[in-house]
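User: Sequence recovery, please. Input:
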C-alpha cells in the first residue's frame, strides 16, 4: 500500500490572449489583487499558431504569460479557473464575445498543468466542471511536448518561458 502524502505547493501561471493590449495590464492588476506579487511577466507574443479564437475575439491576437511569487496548492486551480472565467465574462462585447481569454495553470518540477472547462481523452476531471491537462513534461533538463500539446506551447519561445518560470519555482522550493 502506498503512503498518502499532502500535495506540495506549485507555481501559479496565467496566460492571457487578446487583441486589445490594454487589457493585459487591467487583468494583471486584478490578478495581483487576488494572488499577490508577480515574479515573472513575459513579453507580448503573437498568438498565430492557431485561429481557434479568431471568430470570437477577432484577428491580430496576442498572448502574455505571468506567474506569481506565492505558491498555491494544486487543488486550488479549480477555484482559480472559475474565478478567471468570471473575470472573462466581465469583458464581453455587445456581440456576446470575449475580449480576453484568461488561462490559469500551474507548474512544478515535473510538469505544466493547464485548467480547462473542456473534457477530452487526455484530461482529468478535477471538480466543479474543471479539467486538468498535463500540457508539458520536464524531461532531460527542459520542458517537452506530448502529442496533444497545443501548437504554440510546442514552440521554443514558450518552452523557454516555462523553463524560466520553473527556475523561479525551483529556487523557491529549495529555500525551504
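Assistant: Recovered sequence (176 residues):
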Amino acid at each position: 500500500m502506498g503512503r498518502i502524502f499532502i500535495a506540495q505547493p506549485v507555481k501559479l501561471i496565467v496566460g492571457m490572449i487578446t487583441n486589445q493590449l490594454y487589457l493585459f495590464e487591467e487583468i494583471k492588476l486584478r490578478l495581483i489583487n487576488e494572488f499577490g506579487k508577480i515574479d515573472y511577466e513575459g513579453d507580448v507574443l503573437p498568438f498565430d499558431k492557431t485561429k481557434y479564437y479568431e471568430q470570437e475575439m477577432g484577428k491580430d491576437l496576442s498572448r502574455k504569460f505571468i506567474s506569481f511569487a506565492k505558491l498555491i496548492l494544486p487543488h486550488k486551480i479549480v477555484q482559480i479557473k472559475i474565478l478567471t472565467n468570471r473575470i472573462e465574462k466581465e469583458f464581453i462585447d455587445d456581440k456576446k464575445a470575449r475580449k480576453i481569454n484568461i488561462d490559469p495553470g500551474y507548474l512544478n518540477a515535473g510538469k505544466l498543468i493547464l485548467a480547462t472547462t473542456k473534457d477530452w481523452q487526455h484530461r482529468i476531471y478535477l471538480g466543479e466542471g474543471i479539467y486538468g491537462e498535463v500540457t508539458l513534461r520536464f524531461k532531460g533538463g527542459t520542458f517537452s511536448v506530448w502529442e496533444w500539446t497545443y501548437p504554440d506551447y510546442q514552440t521554443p519561445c514558450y518552452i523557454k518561458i516555462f523553463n524560466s518560470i520553473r527556475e523561479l519555482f525551483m529556487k523557491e522550493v529549495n529555500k525551504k
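Residues 11-175 form one domain.
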